C-alpha cells in the first residue's frame, strides 16, 4: 500500500537535508525539482505510478483548492 499527500510547500531549507543518501556520492544526486501542476510541466515528467500522475492531472483544480491554493 502506498500513501500520497497533497500539500502547499511554504518554505524549503535544502541545507537541512540529511541521511545516508546525501553523504554517499555513489548513490547519485538528490536535486530538488519544482514542477507546477497548473500548466503542462507535469505532463512531461515520468511520475510513477502512472495512475498517480493521471489522477493529479485529472483533479488538479480540486487538489489545489484542498491545499488552499488558487488554481
**Helical/strand content category:** mainly alpha
- With helices defined by DSSP (H or I, 4 residues minimum), what is the helix count? 2
The parts where pLDDT drops under 50 for at least 5 residues are: none
Question: What characterizes the major β-sheet?
Answer: none
Give the % helix.
25-40%
Q: Could you tell me the mean pLDDT?
A: 84
Return the string of H and E elements: HH
Strand content: under 5%
How many distinct beta strands?
A: 0
- N-C termini distance: 29 Å
What is the global morphology?
globular
Rg result:
15 Å
Give a quick set of tags describing it.
single chain; 71 residues; mainly alpha; 30% helix
Give the structure's gist in a few sentences.
By secondary structure, this protein is mostly helical.
Could you explain how this protein is built, in words?
The protein is mostly helical. It has two helices and no strands. It has helices spanning 20-23, 50-66.
Secondary-structure topology with pairs:
Blueprint: H1 20-23, H2 50-66
